[in-house]
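Chapter summary example.
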Amino acid sequence: MATWRKVRPLRTLDFDCENRPLSYLGSDFTTPELTAVAYQFVGEKGSDDVWVLGEDTLLSILHGFREAWDRADIATGHNVRRHDLPLLNAMMLEAGLPPLHPKLVCDTWADLKRRSPGFASQATLAAILGVKAPKVGMSTTDWREANRLTPEGIDKTRRRVVGDVKQHIALRRELLKRDWLKPPTMWHP
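The structure predicted for these 189 residues follows.
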């Protein structure tokens, strides 16, 4: 006799990070410092949060993100394997914290099916696919304020990182609907 049980959908964490240059390693290559993290669990109202350096400490940002990461079955974002996750782990190392645990990741930059170069930025994909959630643009002057952690810069950073998550949720939904994403893969620190 077969027993049926209800299976819950995977809990999907959609997230984004912002950073600023911190120090020079040589030539013009700089090391980054985490300045903001925003996330939302896809399809869950009231499951979002944002932390911004200048209002929050690096430790509170890292602990807050780790708690969300550990509750997720799968994580998603744009260019998170190459940028956001290595940055978060570098900050964990610097803060004396353990690395993030391995997790199934859907990266809408790395997992986008083959296409010609120039079609992979989040803003470009959203425009091509008619995603209505806007990308919050920042000028060079805006980034300078953000990197200096001025009150106006902190506010702009918050709007940017939260906007990126909202746009990404809509973008990923559209990419999945149109069969433009490869299957997620395990990310290992």
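To summarize the output: The mean pLDDT is 93.
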